[in-house]
Every structure is written in structure tokens, then in C-alpha cells.
Amino acid sequence: MAIMQNGDVIAPGTLAADLATIPGELQRYTASRIAGVEDLGKLILMNSASANTFTIPSDATLASRGGPLRAFSPMKRFVVCQFGAGQTSFAAGSGVTLRSESSFVNISAQYLAAMALNVGPNEWLLIGRLA
Questions:
Q1: Per DSSP, what are the bridge partners of residue 81?
Q2: What element of type H or E holds 64?
Q3: Which of 109, 119, 117 is nearest to 129 (CA)?
Q4: Angstrom distance (rounded) from CA 83 to CA 67
Q5: What is the rounded CA–CA span in Å between residue 5 and residue 109?
Q6: What's the CA gap between 10 and 109, in Å, rounded?
């Protein structure tokens, strides 16, 4: 279930609910990127013709790149889209654990996306179109 800013409740599993979870701001990158605080909660378009990596640093490093920031928050998330033809992969910075189905870290194809959700200190869950 999603609750809109105006208080409307949207049923889960509907297009409206899916669209309600898409971030409203964009960040565009043309090469590999170490995530910064400015990327949190935004749709990140990785627009590269060659393979590229979106690295999630430790909580301490993330805070130092734009702090102050709580070490752990279930609201911290990165939404990453493979916008270019180059394969986009997630990578864990030092001390970071990435969890996903079958340990997949590559976004499946161009124009598909995946989300990294903070589920504990230095621990992220990858969900979405991964291979």
C-alpha cells in the first residue's frame, strides 16, 4: 500500500502504486560512480556505452561524502537504471554487504532498474531486475 502526499491510499500491485515509489529527482552519470549522499532517494541514470559500476560505500564513507547522516535508516535507498548500453553492476565498498537473490548484482538490461535498500548498518538489499 502506498500513501500519497495528499493522503490518498493506493492499492498495492497497481500501476499507481508502482509509480508512487519512483523518485522524483534524477542524477545522471556517464561513468562508474561511488554513491554519495546526493544520490540517496533519487533515480540514478547510468548512461554509459561501456560496463560501469555503482559502488555503495560504508555508512561512514557515505556520511563523509555529504554528512551528517544517520548510520542506518530503512529510508536510505538508491534507485539505479542502466540507461546506456553498458552493463551496470552494483559493488560493495569496504565493509559493506550486498544481499540479493542468488547474489545477483548486474542490472538485467538497458532501461531496466534495481533498488538498493538499507536494511542494517553497512547492509543493503538489492531488489529489481538483476542478473
A1: 45, 113
A2: helix 59-64
A3: 109
A4: 28
A5: 32
A6: 29
Distance CA(91)–CA(99), nearest Å, equals 11
Asked if 65 contacts 57 with a C-beta cutoff of 8 angstroms, the reply is yes
Write out pLDDT tens, residues 37-80. 889 888 999 999 999 999 999 988 887 766 555 556 666 899 99
Q: Is the dihedral of CA 60, 21, 2, 128 positive or negative?
A: negative
Q: Is the dihedral of CA 100, 89, 56, 91 positive or negative?
A: positive
Q: What pTM, to 2 d.p., does this model score?
A: 0.80
CA distance 76 to 18: 18
Nearest to 80 by CA among 37, 29, 122: 29
